[in-house]
Amino acid sequence: MTVTAESDNHLDGATRVVLLGTGTPNADPARSGPAVAVVVNDQAYLVDFGPGVVRRAAAAAERGIDALAPQRINVAFLTHLHSDHTAGYPDLLLTPWVLGRAAPLQVYGPPGLSAMTSHLLAAYQADISERIDGLEPANATGWQVDAHEVAAGLVFVDDHVRVEALPARHGAWPAFSYRLTTADRTVVISGDSAPHDQMLANYVNCDLLVHEVYSAAGFARRPASWQNYHAAVHISTRELARVAAVVRPGLLVLYHQLFWGETPDSLLAEIAEVYDGSVVCGNDLDVF
Q1: Are 58 and 68 in contact, with CB atoms under 8 Å apart?
Q2: Radius of gyration of the chain (CA)
Q3: Is the pLDDT score of 219 beyond 80?
């Protein structure tokens, strides 16, 4: 069964999930880099920050999701360090500050996050100094960031959400999925992951599963070297369908889709060969 996402889905509930970017390393102008926002009681929590994240957040704010006004974004989680998931990091560090954010950004992610953060701040130190010491009326704190390197398990709790980092399988380095539990919904966001032994336990009992995927038909046309890579670090439509058939999420949302010449409808058809639950092929700025 497939469903269609509308821009105002779930607007009456406390928890909304906004796809800020559904893309891949391929430079698709219709899809910004991977980024998902979970908005709870007017507070936004980002998972990943691919290229375009701040402008997509601004677009969501223009559509009525005030918590995604860039200057209000102050908590983010990173699944892994690949460039397509992190190329928006300097934008997330600096642009909301330029627009008025005063609180340091709080970022949680795998080992390597602290070094990446330090190097980015060093790269932009001249910009930061000019804004603080020059004529621009900039505050002295909003450019700062607290980078928290975490292990699998409970990584964040506040009055709105409980966030768990879940083991993922994506090459040799540490990678996470994230499970966000609020008063009214449980949301799992996969990041990048090949199938692995803990996947079923990670995903069970969720209302919304936002998951990366690649087309099985497109994969069959790829060169052997790329097939070896993608089979080892990502998940196909049919593999994901088998997982979904066991965990039965309330809604399965595809993002970070590798189409390879296929269409959203063909991805949904490949899923439907195995899984009869509700599925949507996500687009940037869809809201659930």
Answers
A1: yes
A2: 18
A3: yes
**Structural tokens at position 224:** 């052997």
Token digits for 110? 């795998």
DSSP state of 109: E
Please state, in angstroms and rounded to a whole number, the distance separating the CA atoms of residues 185 and 180.
8
The answer to whether 268 touches 235, Cβ cutoff 8 Å, is no
Rounded to an integer, the average pLDDT of 205-234 is 95
Q: Say if residues 48 and 82 touch (Cβ distance below 8 Å).
A: no
Residues across the chain: 288
Structural domains of the chain ordered from first start: 15-281 (3.60.15.10)
Q: What is the pTM of this model?
A: 0.94
> What is the C-alpha separation between 190 and 15, in angstroms, rounded?
18
Q: Which of 49, 51, 23, 54 is nearest to 36 (CA)?
A: 49
The Cα 34–Cα 191 span in angstroms is 8
Q: Report the pLDDT averaged over residues 5-9.
A: 44
Section 52-77 average pLDDT: 98
Encode 143-158: b = buried (16+ Cβ within 10 Å), e = exposed: bebebebbebeebbee
Q: Which residue has the tokens 């409980």?
A: 162
Phi-psi domain of 130 (left: phi exceeds 0; alpha: psi -120 through 50; beta: other): alpha
Angle at 271 between CA 267 and CA 274, to 5 degrees: 155
Residues identified as active-site: 84
What's the token pair of residue 95?
Answer: 């642009």
> In whole numbers, what is the pLDDT of the chain averaged over residues?
94
> CA-to-CA distance for 52 and 31, rounded, in angstroms?
9
Task: For 235-273, give the secondary structure using H, E and C.
Answer: CEHHHHHHHHHHHCCCEEEEEEEECCCCCHHHHHHHHHC
